[in-house]
Amino acid sequence: MMECDCCGNDYDKAFVIEMAGRRYTFDAFECAIHKLAPTCRRCGCRIMEHGVEADGRMYCCAHCAHSCERLTA
Question: Of 21, 34, 48, 55, which one has the fewest beta carbons inside 10 Å?
Fold first, then answer.
């Protein structure tokens, strides 16, 4: 069994993800998302799809990107 890098659970169906040259072991997609998915700069939600990048910052959607840009302008 392998131990989850997020929650520490030992699980016989754990899986490995390699990202940016590092290997991570997870027992559930939820743990992988919690550990690896970027966070929206405006609302704080985890970005599980493509998201929007503006000025090097990640947002979950165009609404958050535009809202944040208006706040800093």
Answer: 21
Residues 44, 73, single domain; the answer is yes
Same domain, 51 and 69: yes
Closest by CA position to 44, among listed 57, 31, 30, 27:
57
Q: Residue 62 in 3-state DSSP?
A: helix
- SS3 of 29, please? helix
Q: What is the pLDDT of residues 3-37, one digit of tens each?
A: 999 999 999 999 999 999 999 999 999 999 999 99
Integer Cα distance of 66 and 13 in angstroms: 41
Could you list the residue range(s) of the whole structural domain that residue 70 is in? 38-73
Q: Which residue reads 């290997």 in tokens?
A: 23
- Separation of alpha carbons 45 and 61, rounded Å: 10
Q: Which amino acid is at 16?
A: V
